[in-house]
Amino acid sequence: xxxxxxxxxxxxxxxxxxxxxxxxxxxxxxxxxxxxxxxxxxxxxxxxxxxxxxxxxxxxxxxxxxxxxxxxxxxxxxxxxxxxxxxxxxxxxxxxxxxxxxxxxxxxxxxxxxxxxxxxxxxxxxxxxxxxxxxxxxxxxxxxxxxxxxxxxxxxxxxxxxxxxxxxxxxxxxxxxxxxxxxxxxxxxxxxxxxxxxxxxxxxxxxxxxxxxxxxxxxxxxxxxxxxxxxxxxxxxxxxxxxxxxxxxxxxxxxxxxxxxxxxxxxxxxxxxxxxxxxxxxxxxxxxxxxxxxxxxxxxxxxxxxxxxxxxxxxxxxxxxxxxxxxxxxxxxxxxxxxxxxxxxxxxxxxxxxxxxxxxxxxxxxxxxxxxxxxxxxxxxxxxxxxxxxxxxxxxxxxxxxxxxxxxxxxxxxxxxxxxxxxxxxxxxxxxxxxxxxxxxxxxxxxxxxxxxxxxxxxxxxxxxxxxxxxxxxxxxxxxxxxxxxxxxxxxxxxxxxxxxxxxxxxxxxxxxxxxxxxxxxxxxx
Length: 526
Prior knowledge:
By secondary structure, the protein is of the alpha/beta class. The chain contains 15 helices and 20 strands.
């Protein structure tokens, strides 16, 4: 072993999105912190680096652009996202205009992005180093000795083939699925949700806007291109993503329930495109034509995972995929990085006694696990219903509104680390979480029926659903009376739940009345 023995305040194992953003956030909160990032690979990563998580939604986008101050960088180097978009029964039509569509006809107020992770992480590494944070590349963490009673940790690693060690007050595992601390401390915890995925990149643009010649269909989006949405082709037990990346590249992937679509049916690029030929032939033709531009192919089996403990009074923590991962549907990955890093940054930089830090650690752990549990409820046993347009429209409306009213609202209002405020709303928060659980149970019952309604070219425009547009825009409004805002959000969710359940159970030619929350959504099913 090399005879050098260095020390630092915070050692971050992993220099991907989670680790680099945490380093920036810590430095922003306390520029005097001595931070070392140990990254297994070397910078810069390749363009369109092969990582899941190109699509970012509101919390993750706000974290990158506002919390970390990266808006100018994102605007200059990444793509603005045109929301999430879903096509139903598209596999049975050669013209995409004949499918049913759920999405927005124009941008909602809060910006989000399609990220080239390779380019972003290269830019983040440069920013981290410009701010004097040490980044050691080609480093593989080997062993950690956890210090107790505020004694330092000893972290052993190899760097460019040389064995080294470093002492640190805090050690953070941001090493994604490598899970250095998770493995070392035996923290792995399984989840019931069992879903598989395979995906690849093409070095060419793929635009669903070209999949129909219908002028009226093209005009639905007011001159905006659907290509820049996270486009979902959905069916019973699966969803396919098509995501644009800067430089004219495209990410395409399948996420599927193995009880309906066995992993063996899409475990290689050829098998996956064969699966597309059976279930989404229009996409299969596009992929076959672009085969020469194939950049890579990857897969993950049973990708969801949990963790017994994420933060410790002994001053260690896990963030990003090193801790928990739910599902890429709705693109929550960067949201969880944002929340986890914000909790960790607060624990490290807040001036507090050991007893106070112990309290914050326990509260943050409980909150984060609750957020993860609520998110997992969106997916568990829900995949069989993805071909059901009525269910997916109703469910997505609820899921968005619940997210914007509770978790996103808490993050945008910067109360997520305000324990006093969190305690004041805890009873109401528990009630609204129970309401969400009850709706997800109803959605699971409907999903088990595996309805698959033939498409009629209908458009479920999210911009025309008043509650969605208003809740999204409210995230950008100046902070007012926090307790009043949250109470009003909860009351609105309770009213919305009743309306959506009624809409879910209506069939045939029932004329659902126009209302202030849903507009004419009920009429759009006719």
